[in-house]
Amino acid sequence: MGKVVLYIAASLDGYIAAKDGSVSWLEPFETSGDDYGYRTFLSRLGAIIMGGNTYRQVLEFGAWPYSGITSYVVTRRPLASQPDDSIQPFSGEIGKLVQQIKGETEKDIWLVGGANLITQFVNQSLVDEYMLFIMPVFLGDGIPLFQNLESPARLRLVEARTYPSGAVQLHYDSQ
């Protein structure tokens, strides 16, 4: 059965985006020549789950980058644009969504973001694997990776990997 995987980059001071939601601070790392295991990770996926704000931000980047992978957008608002048939709006209990997806695919599920959705998943113990990329930059302010967590959780380190760009990948399994 597939796992729910949080694969995400954060600044050294714990932010996933600037206050306005921008992730332009990641651009220098995109030109480093390393894909940080991204293509291999994409090949593991049977589905993607993201929040509405993250979805709208991804649309601003140009062509839909996840064509062919069923993408669930957790939102209470109708989706103004759906550039790909694989995009499905969802507004319900996220635990039921995860059960549904796990019944439909043996592959992994990528929890893309944003921060509010990540918090809901962590608080409901729905994340099976964490692949956190700590980028060597301080933002000073912005949208924190984790916020309003309800209880402590213990994770098991699977791997720690460094990259020439100075990024560090921390790979954890839930216990």
How are the SSEs placed, and which strands pair?
Elements: E1 4-11, E2 15-17, H1 27-30, H2 38-43, E3 45-51, H3 52-60, E4 70-74, E5 87-90, H4 94-104, E6 108-113, H5 115-123, E7 129-135, E8 143-144, E9 155-162, E10 168-174
Parallel strand pairs: 1-6, 1-7, 3-4, 3-6, 4-5
Antiparallel strand pairs: 2-8, 7-10, 9-10
Report on the structure:
By secondary structure, the protein is α/β, with parallel strands linked by helices. The protein has a single domain, classed as Dihydrofolate Reductase, subunit A (3-Layer(aba) Sandwich). It is 22% helix and 33% strand. The strands form two sheets. It has an eight-stranded mixed beta sheet. A two-stranded antiparallel ribbon has the order 2-8. The longest helix is centred in the middle third of the chain and has 11 residues. The two termini are 16 Å apart.
Sum up the structure in keywords:
175 residues, Dihydrofolate Reductase, subunit A, alpha/beta, 5 helices, two-stranded antiparallel ribbon
Assigned CATH architecture: 3-Layer(aba) Sandwich
Distance between the termini: 16 Å
Strand order of the largest sheet: 5-4-3-6-1-7-10-9
- Write the CATH fold name: Dihydrofolate Reductase, subunit A
Mean pLDDT: 93
Question: What portion of residues is helical?
Answer: 10-25%
Say how many strands there are: 10
Summarize the structure.
With 175 residues, the chain is an alpha/beta fold. It has helices at 27-30, 38-43, 52-60, 94-104, 115-123; strands at residues 4-11, 15-17, 45-51, 70-74, 87-90, 108-113, 129-135, 143-144, 155-162, 168-174. It is 22% helix and 33% strand.
